[in-house]
Write a structure and sequence with these properties.
By secondary structure, the chain is an alpha+beta fold. It has 4 domains: about 55 residues; about 60 residues, Nucleic acid-binding proteins (OB fold (Dihydrolipoamide Acetyltransferase, E2P), Beta Barrel); about 70 residues, 5' to 3' exonuclease, C-terminal subdomain (DNA polymerase, domain 1, Orthogonal Bundle), CATH 1.10.150.20; about 50 residues. It has 10 helices and 9 strands. The protein has a 5-stranded mixed beta barrel with strand order 5-6-7-9-8. A 4-stranded antiparallel β-sheet has the order 2-1-4-3, with no helix packed on it. A hairpin with a 3-residue loop joins strand 5 and strand 6. The radius of gyration is 24 Å and the shape is globular.
Length: about 260
């Protein structure tokens, strides 16, 4: 992408090649008042300025949209310095990296001295944030989720934390909106959008979603909710069910025991 700023004289032209938006903003932001178009004019103290932006794939918009394709930091390995409720700090050769992670990832990190994460760097105009995952499959689904309009990196991380990656992929592939809304706790509109946009894409992921246990869990959820338990409590009990308990009646009994202790 090339930015050309032309001021009072046609021969007085400055080219900005591969300069970050923030740098351009600081340099010419007070001179040029841009709009969301490829060409914009502004007058300030009698000076006429023209900003022209040409791109091969998309038109220029200001402020720039959030970018999720930055992969400068894609993996980190180091010592665990600190673990909080929603992030950890990894010391990599003397540099501390703050990485947002799922609760189960943070739980694993608390018992480790050395830890490795597959990471995604989300770049915005006002912040750069790292999101980390223990397994590459989790990162794959995370990238697909943030590609959906209206789902940011923190929302995508929250969705992944709701259920195992295999069950989420299986539910999406089967178009099971009911499972996503009931068992996983995703809102109905978000669940419908996820299924619509990712149903075909998740089939290309290197994730084994051949099992179909989420249908049984949906039935278990409905049975427990009919007994008067709150949806949030039922959701936690269903998530805690062991994978080796496959019979539906046994899963209901096990979940009831969990609910009775809470």
């Amino acid at each position: 992408m090339r930015f050309v700023c032309v001021r009072a004289s046609p021969t007085e032209t400055t080219h900005f090649d591969h300069i970050p938006y923030s740098t351009i903003n600081r340099t010419i932001g007070n001179v040029i008042r841009t709009r969301t178009s490829t060409t914009s004019h502004a007058h300030e103290t009698g000076t006429r300025a023209l900003l022209t932006c040409t791109a091969t794939r998309s038109t220029f918009a200001y402020p720039p949209p959030i970018r999720y394709d930055a992969c400068m930091i894609s993996h980190l390995s180091g010592s665990v310095l600190y673990v909080s409720e929603n992030h950890l700090v990894l010391d990599v050769h003397g540099v501390g990296y703050r990485v947002h992670c799922m609760p189960r990832t943070l739980d694993h990190a608390r018992s480790k001295r050395e830890f490795s994460l597959h990471t995604h760097l989300a770049v915005r105009e006002d912040a750069m944030e790292l999101f980390g995952f223990e397994h590459p499959e989790e990162l794959e689904l995370f990238v697909l989720l943030i590609g959906i309009s209206g789902i940011g990196p923190r929302s995508a991380l929250g969705i992944l934390a709701l259920e195992s990656i295999e069950k989420l992929v299986s539910a999406i592939a089967h178009g099971d909106v009911g499972y996503l809304t009931k068992v996983s706790g995703v809102g109905k509109k978000s669940a419908e959008k996820i299924v619509l946009e990712l149903r075909e894409k998740v089939t290309t992921l290197s994730i084994d979603s051949s099992h179909d246990t989420h249908h049984d869990d949906d039935d278990v959820f409905a049975a427990l909710e009919a007994l008067g338990y709150r949806a949030s409590d039922v959701r936690d009990a269903v998530r805690a069910l062991p994978e080796n308990v496959t019979d539906q009646s046994e899963r209901i009994k096990t979940a009831l025991r969990t609910l009775s202790r809470s």
